[in-house]
Design brief:
The protein is of the alpha+beta class. It has helices spanning 52-64, 136-139, 145-154; strands spanning 6-15, 21-26, 39-40, 43-45, 69-74, 79-82, 98-108, 125-131. 32% of the residues are buried. It holds the Pfam family NUDIX. One of its GO terms (molecular function) is bis(5'-adenosyl)-pentaphosphatase activity.
């Protein structure tokens, strides 16, 4: 399975006015490592020929119901993770070994009431909250934790008000 490609993906580290970060709990994550493991940052696939900046805005609107954001930073590298062995051949219909991600730091410009997880008939998330940036790695499922550690360090300058 290691000869499978990585799925092109974007992710958003969305900061509010207080410097806290948006996390959401996956509604379909039975393999999460305890109650903390189902929380993640918004992320999603990049469509064919889609610019990553356009993709991250689209994904935010699809997943949390708003585009009322500003891009304030971008990680300079594409970050990758591999799926754990029990998910290889299952996730994404077995087409990918993991994801290759472009991450953006973003500032939420709206009010919390604008965040809507219920707009999609099959929502990806069932709950959300704001957390301090350093809390991200502990909330992530194990195979995503190293990326969250990188993001926590790289985007620390954006956590201030």
């Amino acid at each position: 399975m290691t000869d499978l490609p990585y799925r092109p993906n974007v992710g958003a580290v969305l900061f509010n006015r207080d410097g806290l970060v948006f996390v959401a709990r996956r509604a379909d994550m039975p393999y999460a490592e305890g109650p903390a493991g189902g929380w993640q940052l918004p992320q999603g696939g990049i469509d064919a020929n889609e610019d990553p900046r356009a993709a991250v805005l689209r994904e935010l609107e699809e997943e949390i119901g708003t585009r009322n954001v500003a891009i304030i930073g971008e990680h300079p590298d594409w970050l990758t993770y591999d799926l754990p062995p029990d998910l290889l051949g299952i996730a994404w219909r077995g087409k990918y070994r993991g994801q290759r991600q472009r991450w953006f730091a973003m500032r939420f410009l709206g009010e919390d009431a604008e965040i809507r997880l219920d707009l999609d008939p099959h929502p990806e998330f069932d709950a959300w909250r704001w957390v301090p940036l350093p809390a991200l790695p502990a909330l992530a499922v194990g195979f995503k934790r190293p990326i969250y550690e990188v993001l926590t360090e790289a985007f620390a300058p954006f956590a201030g008000r």
